[in-house]
Amino acid sequence: MTETPEARPIKGVHHGAFRCRDAEQTRWFYEDVLGLVTEGGVVLDEVPGTGADDPYLHIFFRMTNGEYIAFFDAPASADPEWFQRKESFDMHWAFEVESEEALLAMQARINSFGVSALGPIDHHFVRSIYMYDPNGIQVELTCRTADHDAIFAKEKAEFADVLARWSERTRAAKLEKFGAEAIAKRGRAPARA
């Protein structure tokens, strides 16, 4: 696909959002512990689009690049089980810091708040530390290594073959576990001019 603004219209993340158990507890972690800026929040009594009666606070935190993470504090519809720790394959944030020195400084800062930040783990393209937020979501802070871009360039060049081999290797297990309809491609390709 052509690399034009029309072909690739998404310029970045405005926000990713999840539930939180308690807005103040979440504010403490993301603002006090991690140092993000609380941009504010809005209280609404109905769910937009459905009109369902479910009062909630939608709170936003800004990162230095202008992107946000956000949370919904909606106690009436919350399931306490959702706040159990999630496996990292199921859900995690990975936030980037500028350097290895910044990563180690953040690890010391986080630990000083009594939050365990483990690592750093060397993933070759990044080095990372890990912790959990108060909502059971794993949070990773990461910094790029000197080889980051070269590793991604190599992976991009090989990806079509890697994906084809992976799909062939896992197709039977996925068909058995999920069924053909669940893993079928959706929609249709756009018409070509």
From TrEMBL:
InterPro entries, per the entry: Glyas_Bleomycin-R_OHBP_Dase (IPR029068), Glyas_Fos-R_dOase_dom (IPR004360), GlyoxalaseI/FosfomycinResist (IPR050383), VOC_core (IPR037523)
SUPFAM superfamilies: Glyoxalase/Bleomycin resistance protein/Dihydroxybiphenyl dioxygenase
Domain VOC: 12-144
Cited Gene3D superfamilies: 2,3-Dihydroxybiphenyl 1,2-Dioxygenase, domain 1 (3.10.180.10)
CDD domains in alphabetical order: VOC
Pfam families hit by this protein: Glyoxalase
Identification of the protein by name: VOC family protein
